[in-house]
Structures are given as structure tokens and as C-alpha cells.
Design goal:
ABC_transporter-like_ATP-bd, 6-stranded mixed β-sheet, AAA+_ATPase, ABC transporter ATP-binding protein, ATP binding, P-loop_NTPase, binds adenosine-5'-triphosphate, alpha/beta
Length: about 350
């Protein structure tokens, strides 16, 4: 598939769009040996540019966690290289630490007894940040996440959504080049999840932060990510811009409505020639969905209907979403183990 195309975002003179911040090359990881060996990651390569938001997706057991932990230096890969901001992660783990932040355990990575601001200061200090420079950055983050009024409250006192935002702000507090976010919206209510997605997108668009995230929620991925890397059985099976992936599937499925009922014969002909499902008999019409294989067009469907004297009332293209794409390329539902 084609390489990533990017969403439009304001030009940033200091950070060219094409600058590679993360390069993973032929990463492999085998756990155990002999008969018990598990090849968790099997030759994974991908790159992430500055300012890009990339989703690493895959069914359970696909190798996402192993890949991300290898990038972060928490797992030693069997072979392959990882470079972050030009620094080799395994030759120079300390050098790489300066460039990455990670939120791996949701809201649990913050100190609940400390205030919101103290958490940000603590995480910034871990990265050796100058306190004064960091303060301006933290004010901005607090504003952005609507946490300014809560800055001096203990995290413990906050709602789940606010805790999650503090966690994200703390991850960003060090001002690293890349942040890794594992299921950033997990467990949030709809409102908090929507707010977090919006803020993540804004941070990428306005401040060119680079984000690698994993999520089983395809809506989150579709709204926040520029690009997705889909893993299956330890290999990359898709690496493309979200809109290109979804575009491949476009206009192949339609919902049609015809007047009255559809005769058994016409139904049978349609079902033999096309993938037809979700028949619905409404008061004065019949509704159904048709998915076209590559060599079919909608005209073929219309011909069958005309032959059967069915009057067409309405045709709507069914917009595919990332969940459909995921299901198609992996054969499994996001979050499902396919068993
Ligand atoms: N420490 C380990 N020892 C042995 N096998 C492991 C270990 N960690 C992971 N595995 C195996 O490696 C494979 C990939 O696991 P990994 O956790 O990287 O996948 P994942 O895509 O993150 O899955 P999930 O979505 O369930 O977290 C799986 O078969 C898993 O059982």
C-alpha cells in the first residue's frame, strides 16, 4: 500500500513534515526457546514523522505490546533496530529516554496524593527539565486540558476523565519528541473520551507533537490518527493513511430501498449474483444492503431489479469505517481474539 499521506496542518518552519522521528527496522522478538518459543514480532518495520499521529493496531496477540515495549527499551528484541530522534534505542537507552514519554497504564501512572501541578513538575524533573521553562509549558498544558482550576487539587479528588487528562498532561510534561499512549481513552465516558480525542488532535495539529497510540476503539483511531500500522501474527499487514485505507473500501456497499415487497425469484437472483444482506420489510417498501465484489457494479443490481419490476426508491452508499477495514485485513474484530 502507499506510504502515509498527511492531514493538512499549519506549517511549522522549525519542524519539516518529513523528518523521521521514529524508525523501527526489521524488529523481531522471540519469547522462550525450543518447542515453547513464541515469535511475537516477526520483522516489523515502520517509520513515524514528526507531528504525525500513528495508531498501532492489531488483534489480541498480534505483537503490539511487544513492539511498543521494544521501542521503549522495556523489552530487549531478538534482532532489528529502533532509532528515536536519530538515537539508537539499544545502544543508547539513556539518550533515547530524553526523547520519549509513555502512558502505558492509563491514569495509574500519576501520583494521586500529589496535586495536578506537582505531578507535571515531578515528571518534567525526571526528564531533567529546567523548572522555569517547564512552568510555562505546564500552564499551557493545564489550560489545554481544562485543568487550570484543578492545578492545586490532589489528583485523588478528580473524576476519572480528569485523572486520565492529568496522566496525559504528565506524559507530555517533559516535552519529549514522541509520546506513546496505550488505550488513552479506555474506561472514559463518552464525553471525556471525545474531549481527550479533540485535545490530542489539536496538540498534533498545533504543536506538531508526535504520537504513537494503540487502541481497540476504532472510532478513536479514525478521529485522532493520521496513519495506522496494522499488525497481525507479528507482521505489518497494512501501513497507510486512515483515509486511504478507508477509501479502498469506499462505494462498494450500498443500501437500497424498493417499492413494496421483493418477489422470492428476484431475491434469489440477487443473492446468487451479489452479497445481499440485512433484508428489512417496511410498511410500503423493502430495504436491503448489497456489497459488490471487485468486478461488479451497481448497474448489475439495478438490472436485476428492473427485470423483476421492482421500483427503486432510494440508493445510499454505505460509508465504510476503519472497523470494516480492520475486520477485512485481519479477519478479526478489534479487541476480539478471533477464537
Ligand atoms: N513475556 C512473554 N513471554 C512469552 N510469550 C509472550 C510474552 N509476552 C507476550 N507473549 C506472546 O507474544 C505474542 C504477542 O503478544 P503481545 O502482547 O505483544 O500482543 P498484543 O498485540 O499486544 O496483544 P494484546 O492486544 O492482547 O495486548 C502473544 O502470542 C503472546 O502470548
Amino acid at each position: 500500500m502507499s506510504q502515509a499521506t498527511q492531514r493538512e496542518r499549519p506549517p511549522d518552519e522549525s519542524a519539516p513534515e518529513s523528518e523521521t522521528v521514529l524508525a523501527v527496522d526489521d524488529l523481531r522478538k522471540t519469547y522462550g526457546d525450543g518447542e515453547d518459543a513464541v515469535q511475537a514480532v516477526d520483522g516489523v518495520s515502520f517509520e513515524v514523522n514528526r507531528g504525525e499521529v500513528v495508531g498501532v493496531l492489531g488483534p489480541n496477540g498480534a505483537g503490539k505490546t511487544t513492539t511498543i515495549k521494544s521501542v521503549l527499551g522495556l523489552v530487549v528484541p531478538s534482532s532489528g533496530t529502533v532509532e528515536i530522534a536519530g538515537v539508537d534505542a539499544h545502544e543508547n537507552p539513556r539518550g533515547v529516554y530524553k526523547h520519549v514519554g509513555a502512558m502505558l497504564e492509563g491514569a495509574r501512572n500519576t501520583y494521586w496524593k500529589l496535586t495536578v501541578r506537582e505531578n507535571l513538575e515531578f515528571f518534567a524533573a525526571l526528564g531533567g527539565n529546567d523548572p522555569e521553562a517547564a512552568r510555562a509549558r505546564h500552564d499551557k498544558l493545564l489550560d489545554r486540558f481544562n485543568l487550570a482550576e484543578k492545578a492545586d487539587e490532589a489528583v485523588n479528588e478528580l473524576s476519572r476523565g480528569q485523572k486520565q487528562k492529568v496522566s496525559l498532561a504528565a506524559t507530555l510534561a517533559r516535552g519529549t519528541d514522541v509520546v506513546f499512549l496505550d488505550e488513552p481513552t479506555l474506561g472514559l465516558d463518552v464525553e471525556a473520551s471525545v474531549e481527550l480525542r479533540r485535545e490530542l488532535r489539536r496538540l498534533a495539529d498545533e504543536e506538531s507533537i508526535t504520537v504513537v497510540l494503540s487502541s481497540h476503539d476504532m472510532d478513536v483511531v479514525e478521529q485522532v490518527c493520521d496513519r495506522v500500522v496494522i499488525l497481525s501474527d507479528g507482521e505489518v499487514i497494512a501501513d497507510d493513511a486512515v483515509e486511504d485505507l478507508v477509501g479502498v473500501f469506499e462505494t462498494q456497499a450500498y443500501q437500497l430501498e424498493v417499492e413494496g415487497a421483493v418477489s422470492e425469484r428476484a431475491r434469489d437472483r440477487l443473492e446468487r449474483a451479489f452479497i445481499v444482506e440485512n433484508w428489512e420489510a417496511l410498511a410500503d417498501r423493502t430495504r436491503f444492503e448489497v456489497t459488490l465484489a471487485d468486478d461488479h457494479t451497481l448497474y448489475g443490481v439495478l438490472d436485476v431489479l428492473r427485470d423483476a419490476d421492482c421500483t427503486l426508491l432510494d440508493v445510499d452508499g454505505l460509508e465504510p469505517d476503519l472497523e470494516d477495514v480492520f475486520l477485512d485485513v485481519t479477519g478479526r474484530a478489534p479487541g476480539g481474539d478471533g477464537e
